[in-house]
Amino acid sequence: xxxxxxxxxxxxxxxxxxxxxxxxxxxxxxxxxxxxxxxxxxxxxxxxxxxxxxxxxxxxxxxxxxxxxxxxxxxxxxxxxxxxxxxxxxxxxxxxxxxxxxxxxxxxxxxxxxxxxxxxxxxxxxxxxxx
Length: 131
What we know:
By secondary structure, this protein is mainly beta. The protein has one helix and eleven strands.
């Protein structure tokens, strides 16, 4: 079964940290970029960060640069999002997603171009940052 399973969400005070995990199964991990979206109540889903599992390149939305770090453990087929200096406005459901990497084409469109070419979605994990 093709799936992404997130974990690591929870409640944290402003200024605190959380680490989200996204475990992939059922597809060839190295052929995909894995990224994180988030959706706050009443707002549209937005791309947060993405990593290419083919070359390790990483991408971040401006609003998380310097605070969030994405990484990948290809041996475990798992992507992590380390979130530091959390703010109340980071409160959202965080989803991981897989985008097929096409040679010669843009990688991590979810962050780089804002276009979504998502083939697999996770179920989401709630992050709540208290002020």
